[in-house]
Each structure stands twice: as C-alpha cells, then as structure tokens.
Amino acid sequence: MNLSRRIFLKRGALALTSIGTLPVWGPAFLRQTVLATEENAARRGKVLICLFQRGAADGLSMVVPHGDPHYYEYRNEIALRRPAREAGPEGCLDLDGFFGLHPQLAPFLPLYQAGHLAVIEACGSPSTSRSHFDAQDFMESGVAGDKAVQSGWLNRTLRNCPEDRARKLTPFRSVAMTATTPRTLQGDLDTLAIPDLRTFGLGTTKLADAALTRGATAGFESMYASAVQDVLHGAGKESFEALALLKAIDPERYQPANGAVYPQAAFGRSLQQIAQLVKADIGVEVDFAECDGWDTHAAQGAATGALAGKLHDFSRSIAALYQDLGERMADVVILTMSEFGRAARQNGNKGTDHGHGTCFFVLGGSVAGGKVYGDWPGLAPEQLFEERDLAVTTDYRDVFGEIAGKHLGATKLEQVFPGYNVDPRRWRGVLKA
Q: What is the SS3 string spanning the chain?
C-alpha cells in the first residue's frame, strides 16, 4: 500500500504535502487529534484572514482618486472615468465624492455602504525597494528593510497573544492555503500549509471505509503515531483510532451558506475552504491566502482588460466569503495587502511600472467602515514619491499593528514589529473601539 500523505517541517512550520491519491495524511487526522483530546479545544474566537495580492496591485485603479485632476493627466488611456450617469459601466463607483471603486469591485460597494468595509489609501512600506521579492519579504516579516529578521509578523503576533495561553490550542490555530508556509507565518509556532483541503481529505472517512490490510494499517499507524508525537505532541494511537470512528466535514459536499457563490478559480476555491475551516469551529485564529498576477506592466486596461479581470475574481471571491460566513463576520476581520503599488503615470505599453503606495481593504463586523482612511498625499508632480509614485502616508505596520492588538489581542507589539516604534496614535482607527 502506497501511503500518499506525509508530514514534514519546513522553515520551522508544519506543512502538508500530497504525492499520491489516497487521502490518508492531512487535515482529517489533525481534526481527529483535536476531537480526541480530553477537552474540545475549539472555540469561537477572533479570526484574522490575510489575503496577499502578489505582484504589486495598482491601488490607483482599485480605488480611483477621481477628484485629483493629475490622475487623468498621467493616465490618459487607462484611467477610470469619473462616476457619472453618462460614464455608465466605464465609470468608477463613487465612495465619498473624491474616491471611487473600480467597477469590477462592485461587490464591495454594498459592504462599504453598510459600514463593513474600510479603505486605507496611500498605504505601504517606507522601503524604497521596487523588487517584488524584497518588498514582499519585508512586508511579511514586518520590517522595512532588515533581512536578518527570519520570522513573519503574524507568527510573532500569535506568540504574543496572552489570552491564548489560558486555553488549549489546536493545530488549526494558523492555516495557510498555500503549498508551503508563507513568510508571514514562518517562525517558532507551527502553521499548517494546505493548498487544497480536498487533496488532503478533510473530514472524509475513506480511511475507515477502505479495505486496508492489517499490515498496511499497522505500518501507517506507526508512522502516524510518530508524526503526531513529534509535531503535534499528541497521542498518536488514540488519534488514529479516532480517525476511523469520527465523521467530520467533507469539502466535496460543502455548501456555502446565505446564497454565496464563489468563483471557481484558485483564489475563490481557497476562500471557500477558509470559510469551511472557520465554520468548523476547530480553533482557527489566522487564515492566509494569496493571489498573484497583479504585475500589470502592459495592456493593463481600464474598466475592462487584464486588471479588470483580476479584480472581478478578487472582489467576488471576497464578497462570497463575507456572505458565506454571515453572522460569523462579527468576529472575523479580512485584510488585503500588496507589496507596493504602481507608478502614477502609465508607461508606453499602456501599463504601469513598479510604484510605491497602494491601498489596503479591511472588512468585518468590527470594522469602522464606510470610509476611506489615510492622508491623501496628492498626485501633483512635487507630491509624488521620487517624482513618479504615490507617496506612502500610512506605514503598513500601523495597519497590521492595530489589527494585531485590537482584534487578536496581541501585546508587546515592539516584538511583533522589531525596530519600529509602535505608536497607537498613528493607528487609523479602522476597527471600532
């Protein structure tokens, strides 16, 4: 019998890898580990869902500063039209008379109007690097330019949540819907990296139903017990037996709630599975997912085109997640980010080059939404960063810090963001007091 799932430790975090077809290893046995403990460690606590737009998403197209005339001077071919009746589907969707959403972010508008979505403009890192690799590394590490920091800001956040010490924690405390552990979650605390719950047989009983030979079962049990002992510090034999006895969730049969419909691309599938994990009440505190393809150097388009296609999938996936979670969003915050934005001026290929400031979105029941936060630096030539980019007026660590402290309850934020003077007076107030 070929055992097709294995555990391995990568960069100090727990990851899961599939090399076959039999769903033996993965979240199924981990779920049973949780259920086999003396006390059910799961609870309905605060959850943070971090979504990384890799490739430098163009904040000036996602949230259009239609009230700044220089925007139209710089982008005569790719600018989104001002919101007006005659603009029709080509116009942006007005938020406050100055900023407007890209029309493909239309699913965000009712969330904004209901006060559940906030925008943070001119946000980013003080690092001047325009390297995707370096800028992502710095943002995920929670530093501005220190490559000596090896752990991720969110791993350090979880280490500094004192309320968590008073309760049992589950292996599902920190989950990334990625093939390997993202930089954000690397560190001393284990993280599950699961690219697809279906691959790993979450909640299936195929192991119990399969006609395994006694020898194969004994061999798997031995390896399983060793893995749990080494990684989860649990009782392998008891957990293995629980796997054969307990029935849990089957992602193949999962039905989103409240009429939510997820796009069937990879990002939408990841968010649907995040909803499943959150609603399973297995102790999830942090979920991470990512989507790439935001590096729009050519043929970026305006209301239609390459960027519009990305935003269509992006917004509908997040809106479906919000709708699916329903009342659970009272305890969930969704945070989007990108390593930097795009240049203010379009280039000769009708695209945009690497820039500096961009915009983040924050969604949730505890979000003080319906507002665009941040100090708008302006797009006049003398206001641009290095005479080409939107300047950063909100350091991303002030956004992360507010959410880490006020939502997850982290303390000692100077340890979460080493080398940075964490000052709550700089927080934008995107979360309700």
A: CCCCEEEEEECCEEEEEECCCCCCCCHHHHHHHHHHCCCCCCCCCCEEEEEEECCCCCHHHHEECCCCHHHHHHCCCCCCECCCHHHHHHECEECCCCCEECHHHHHHHHHHHCCCEEEEEEEECCCCCCCHHHHHHHHHHCCCCCCCCCCCHHHHHHHCCHHHHHCCCCHHHEEECCCCCCHHHCCCCCCEECCCCCCCCCCCCHHHHCCCCHHHHHHHHHHHHHHHHHHHCCCHHHHHHHHHHCCCCCHHHCCCCCCCCCCCCHHHHHHHHHHHHHHCCCCCCEEEEEECCCCCCCCCCCCCCHHHHHHHHHHHHHHHHHHHHHHHHHHEEEEEEECCCEECCCCCCCCCCECCCEEEEEEECCECCCEEECCCCCCCHHHCECCCECCCCEEHHHHHHHHHHHHCCCCCHHHHCCCCCCCHHHCCCCECC
